[in-house]
TrEMBL record:
Keywords: Hydrolase
Name of the protein in question: Glycoside hydrolase
Source organism phylogeny: Eukaryota, Fungi, Dikarya, Basidiomycota, Agaricomycotina
């Protein structure tokens, strides 16, 4: 079983230029018969290579992505907390939740070959099913504003399944804020997530989240198999570099969640100390039984547009560094992937983009071509070394940002038009190639039936 799960997780396709795929409707959900035995439909959603996109500023707002909900926000007008405290906050948020992702958006993503979406949420959005999550927090008096959030989150999971997408639920905003950014729930610069009371409370929130997700998946009209995992907290930034405390919290929380559902994959952020956290996951794996431990993934976020060093590095040099196996990031990824694979875990890049600082693009004759070279270098690295990746972000309120939004990046040729497994009609010319592919898949999966083989061919990778 572990060998087959490893095959599904580590399926790697060398990324290269591919012919434009003809548009077609999203694949229909696979019949429920595949939920029996192993590998079942849920396994295939969870352990395939995740080629994904973040649905940023949907349930956790970021003003640079979507400005409209902030027009009536309380000062300083940068966070969910500010919008919720403003006049008519409930109506504004519910209208945004209902309209940010339309059917055409889901269809567009499916037509790019994306197979998974990462959905950032705030802890306060569970308050309708567990009022205790906001007790003693900044959102304690705002529960009425967020009563409609959880039903919409579960509807998003169901809609994603209809379009063939897995869903990674990411706790983007935790009590007390895990970093200083406004996307951690409030506009305060104070980071108090690492206080013992908030750490304990967040563990309870995550166990409640897992319980609610399991309950929803089971009690749906049919079992929903497409929740690929839960990310414990987004981009935690421990004060005084106290990573020992963060790792202890990870360990405690993972153990608590495994007691509820030992099979739910769990994702943890590396706080940009990738080797250290890979070693931490390995230590957990060495102490655990593979038959009872959920799959763990280490999430690294890669951007090259924020530091002074990034800004002074030409775009072509950024791309070249990512293609050089001896350079820092590729060598780290190769080393970390090997470390994680030794305990059945994996590395993902949960956020990345084609954004480059203007300093990196000085003198570049074709900005979009330079960004495309940078994007292709990233994709090649992630396809080789990682179990998955998630572009940040799907779209912005305004068009024209080819570095950050997938829709604009595809339109400008910065991001490929297709990144998934291609559904093709078998011709006499390529019949032999398809026979070899099907034979290899059949052998890897231990002789599965034709329906399952069709599912694997369409969804794995």
């Amino acid at each position: 079983m572990e060998r087959v799960k490893s095959f599904l997780r580590r399926d790697r396709h060398a990324h290269g230029s591919q012919p434009v795929r003809s548009k077609q409707s999203p694949p229909p959900p696979v019949p429920a018969v595949l939920s029996v035995g192993f590998p079942n439909q849920q396994d295939l959603f969870r352990y395939r290579k995740q080629r994904g996109v973040n649905l940023g500023s949907w349930f956790v707002l970021e003003r640079w992505i979507a400005d409209a909900p902030f027009q009536g926000a309380a000062p300083p007008g940068q966070s969910d907390h500010d919008v919720a405290r403003g006049p008519d906050g409930q109506r504004i948020l519910e209208e945004h939740w209902d309209n940010w992702m339309a059917e055409d958006d889901w269809k567009w993503i499916a037509e790019r070959g994306i197979n998974t979406v990462r959905i950032p949420i705030g802890y306060y959005e569970l308050c309708s099913v567990d009022p205790s999550v906001i007790v003693g927090t900044d959102f304690a008096d705002l529960g009425h504003v967020f009563q409609g959030a959880w039903p919409r989150i579960t509807t998003a999971i169901e809609t994603a399944y209809r379009f063939g997408f897995g869903v990674l639920i990411d706790l983007h905003a935790a009590p007390g804020k895990q970093n200083a950014d406004a996307h951690s729930g409030t506009s305060s610069n104070e980071i108090s997530f690492f206080n013992s009371a908030n750490l304990v409370h967040t563990t309870l929130i995550l166990t409640s989240l897992l319980t609610q997700l399991d309950k929803y998946a089971r009690n749906h009209t049919f079992p929903l198999p497409n929740i690929v995992g839960i990310e414990l907290v987004n981009e935690p930034n421990p004060p005084n570099n106290d990573h020992a405390a963060l790792q202890q919290w990870y360990k405690t929380t993972i153990e608590a969640m495994r007691r509820i559902d030992p099979d739910m994959p769990l994702y943890i952020g590396d706080s940009w100390r990738t080797d250290e956290y890979a070693g931490f996951i390995k230590s957990l794996g060495d102490q655990s039984s593979a038959s009872t431990s959920s799959f763990l993934a280490l999430d690294h976020h890669l951007y090259r547009c924020f530091t002074a060093s990034d800004n002074s590095t030409p775009a072509a040099q950024h791309a070249a560094a990512l293609r050089n196996p001896a350079d820092g990031t590729p060598s780290t990824f190769a080393r970390v992937s090997s470390t994680l694979a030794s305990v059945g875990a994996d590395l993902i890049v949960g956020e990345w983009s084609g954004a480059l600082n203007p300093g990196s693009l000085q003198g570049v004759p074709d900005e979009h071509a330079a960004k495309r070279e940078f994007v292709d270098a990233q994709l090649a690295l992630y396809e080789k070394e990682c179990g998955g990746w998630f572009w940040w972000t799907y779209k912005k309120q305004w068009g024209g940002d080819s570095g950050w939004t997938m829709r604009d990046a595809v339109e400008k040729g910065v991001f490929p038009g297709w990144v998934g497994v291609r559904a093709q009609r078998v011709t006499e010319h390529d019949h032999g190639q398809h026979e070899r592919r099907d034979s290899a898949l059949d052998k890897a999966l231990g002789g599965c039936n034709a329906l399952l083989l069709l599912f694997v061919s369409s969804y794995v990778g």
